[in-house]
Structures are given as structure tokens and as C-alpha cells.
Amino acid sequence: MSLYRIYIDETGNHDLTHADDPNQRFLALTGVILESGYIAGTLQPEMEEIKRQFFQHDPDEPVIFHRKEMVNRRPPFQVLQDTKVEKRFNQTLLAALDRWEYQVITVVLDKKAHRDQYSVWRYHPYHYCMAVMLERFVLFLHYANHHGDVMVESRGGKEDEKLKDSYRRLYANGTDPIPAERWQERMTSRELKVKPKSADIAGLQLADLIAHPSRREILLDNQLIADTRDIFGDKICAILRANKYMRSRSGQIQGYGKKLLP
């Protein structure tokens, strides 16, 4: 029996008032499932070594992998403006993403389709996506006879408290498919763990690196966005499809590691 943690990253917008805006129509949560011993023994030190290899990495001022800052070459990632350095870094990172042991669940909500279908929102979009994701995590823990907990990146103040309250309700009441007893049997804590980006959490950074490519692929799968070139993101998704997305016992990814919600 092992302890697992799912690290959750948000991409998109949870605002309900702009669902018709193509740039704000979709909300996605990506969860990365990692075994606790593997994080300390492999993921964290190997991620730190990549940072030391390519960036000015000071333990007192750690480099935090954040996809948006990396793409825009903001400090300390300005060294990636050198195409030779960028190529070596991309190769190193892709090899690590392939080598590291983790499972991925991405849940995408089409807010416009949900509003058109149901008229009334029963839940906050973020909480709705989180419930669907954590149902899959609880089932993973149940079938493998493991225990686990949940960590998200801080969004600040009242938003963090809302997320914590939502998680407490899931833990206390369960959901229609999964009763509360199952949640309480498999989750080690009734509290959601919330950490700031500055805490340098390897699992949260891993989730950040893959969240946008995974969201994009699900939208492409369902013809909800135009197919624009993203060569590096496509390579990440190829790794996820090969052996990282959660899947059924028969190998099906749709509905397990990749879920689109109306």
C-alpha cells in the first residue's frame, strides 16, 4: 500500500459571464498523480538538476518551471532565446517527461455548451471539474489499494477558501457515482493542500508543464479549436498518449485520462 498525491493545475477561465468568448469558453484542470517516495527520491532531484544545468538556480531563490514564462522567455528563461540552448533544453525536458513515472487526468469544461444544455449552474465550474477529476483519483486509489491526498496551487484569499470548502464537501458527502465512505477510506486528509508557486513544488510544476498541451489536444480531438502548430506541445502529448494518461483496463483513454464536460 502506497501514498499518492494528485497535483492539480488550472488552465483557462472559470468565469461564467464570458462563456461566449472563444478565448474564455473553456476551463481545464490537469491532475498529475505521483507516488510520494518517487517524488522525493527521483522527481524532485532530477527536476532540480535540469534547472541547475540550464539556468542560474540558487536554492535560496529557486527557479520555478512555469510554462507561460518559459514560452515568453522571461527571466530566468531568457537563455532559451539561444536556439542551441533551447534545443538541448527541450530534448532534456522531453526525455524527463517520458522517463518520469506519473499518471495524468485532464478534465475540460465547455462552459458555453454546459450553459446551453443545462441553463442553470449547479456548481462553480472549477469545483465541477475538480469533482469529476477526483472521482477518477479515488477509483485509482481504490482499485490499487492505495491512499492519497490532493494539492493545488494557491489562487489567493477567498478563492483558496472556496476550493477548500468544495473539497471538504466532496470528502464529507461523496458524489453520485462514489459514496462518501469510499472517499474517506482512500483519502488521508479531509483538507485540501494549497501551496503558492514560490514553494517550488515539483508536482505542481510538472502539472503546469503539461496542462496547456493536454487541454489543447482535448479541444482538437473534439474539433473545438483550430489546429495551429505547436510542435513542442504535440511532442508532450505524444508522450502522454503513449504511457501517461490514465486509462481503463482495456486501454481506453477517453473518459478516463481525458474527459470533456458539457
Give an overview of the whole structure.
With 262 residues, the protein is α/β, with parallel strands linked by helices. It has a single domain, classed as Nucleotidyltransferase, domain 5 (2-Layer Sandwich). The chain is built from nine helices and six strands, in the order ββαααβααβααβααβ. A six-stranded mixed sheet has the order 5-4-1-2-3-6, sandwiched between helices. Helix 3 (83-99) runs parallel beside helix 9 and helix 8 (202-221) crosses helix 9 (231-243).
Low-confidence stretches: none
How do the helices and strands follow one another from N- to C-terminus? EEHHHEHHEHHEHHE
Question: Any idea what the CATH architecture is?
Answer: 2-Layer Sandwich
Give the full name of the CATH homologous superfamily: Ribonuclease H-like superfamily/Ribonuclease H
Helix-strand makeup class: alpha/beta
Quaternary organisation of the protein chains: single chain
What share of residues are in beta strands?
Answer: 15-25%
Q: Which class in CATH terms?
A: Alpha Beta
Biggest sheet architecture: 6 strands, mixed
The largest sheet has its strands arranged as 5-4-1-2-3-6
Annotated CATH topology: Nucleotidyltransferase, domain 5
Q: What's the domain count?
A: 1
